[in-house]
Amino acid sequence: MRKFSALLICLMLFSSLLAACGGGKAAPEVTSKEGGTTNTGGTTTTQNEEPKEDVADKKVTIKIHYPLPDDTTLRQQEDDKIARFQAKYPNVTIVKDDWQYSVNEIGVKMASNEAPTFYNTWATEAQLLVERGWVADITEFWNNWEYKDDMNPVLQEQFIVDGKVYGVTQNGYITSTIVNKKLLDAKGVALPPMDWTWDDMYNTAKGAADPKAGISGIAPMGKGNEAGWNWTNFLFEAGGDIEVNEDGKVKAVFNSEAGVKALDFYKKLRWEGNAIPQDWALGWGDAVSSFQQGRTAMVIAGAFDVIQPALNEGGMKPEDVIAYPMPAMEKGGAHHGILGGNYLVINPNATKDEQEMAFRYITFDYFTDDALKSVEDTINARKAEGKYFVPTPLEYFSDDSEYAAKVKAIYDKYDNVYKYDPQLFSLLEGKPEAQFGTQDYYAAMSNVVQESFSKEGTDSKKQLDDTAKLVQENFFDKIEQK
């Protein structure tokens, strides 16, 4: 993370020295009756200026990012936060808005001035949002925030563009594979090693699949941009990249030997292993639901997003739900998974007061004892309901921070807190998502995935070459970098 604070302090001190020195030796100051200061060596007297009005004293309305109706637990947590926030800031009116960010809707939302004061978005969106002017520069608020240096630098860096801060990380993920051990046991398939390979994944998926019973060995996402997103993990594992920047231009490079290997592996799961769902056109929610309902032995996603509903809505047991890193292409290879995350960004159309209050709301529970208490209360509430608390693998705070140690101490006290295999974290290797035209690339690759799953014998190299040409001409060539 860039260290803004040291530079800012130096500039402030330097400015103060200049002001004090003026053109010669500074004259002594005495306090006036009115409480101001009088320069006894000069000709002018400066009285105290009116104190700057704190935004907390103003009537401000903010429209906040609010969970979807079916996220009842998250809504309860947000409602509790709202109550605590308004107790501290009684002049603030809060309007709930459960709109979820969509790259296809954000432009309309901004143009019609209907976007919330702050909204959730993903790591891929930083360049797009900054270039289109759909996100506010919050560097001033960030630099004045006491906890900025305790944030997770790997995650926070994704929303620092040209030295300016445009978002606050909520949490992050390195794409993982989540395994349903119960389905493996039912077919007599041994758990693969945590340090596994593509061959291990293939054999596990093929062995666990039971097509006649409607159970797949693995459910790669097959529709929507998420299909391209899922596949890209394998591109990374094979040593490939989505794009490179050459002489200020973005060039597609996913039609590489690595890309061919990754696409051929997908086809192997489909046509040789018969390991994917017969109805393979699954979106993100479909794939996660399939795992939750016990209809697939493996799914690829952020671990929290799969494990939480599997345990608390699907009735699965912690010992049967195991988070794995993405498999290495071969033994000794990297377990690359896409590094992504959730970020809260502020609407540039909001007033300065609204933006500042939105920043205070976003960071309200960060690094606080109230937040620790809220975590513990949530764990206890889940326990009373017979449910589990599932931590996110990557938190907003740095792993070596004092706060991280406090959180871990709470987790260790309870038996209903899901425990990840410690070996997982030593194997996870996150690779950041591309920052230019990423969603356009994902969409184009989704078409390739669908063609590969629907037609046997397609030419992987030709598919990728054609798609790279399409992405290059229609999207990457139109990107203007600053």
From TrEMBL:
Domain of life: Bacteria
UniProt cross-references to Gene3D superfamilies, sorted A to Z: Periplasmic binding protein-like II
Region described as Disordered: spans on this chain: 26-54
Signal peptide, first to last residue: 1-19
Keyword check for Cell wall biogenesis/degradation: no
Keywords assigned: Signal
Biased segments, Low complexity type: 35-46
Name under which the protein is recorded: ABC transporter substrate-binding protein
Organism: Paenibacillus glucanolyticus
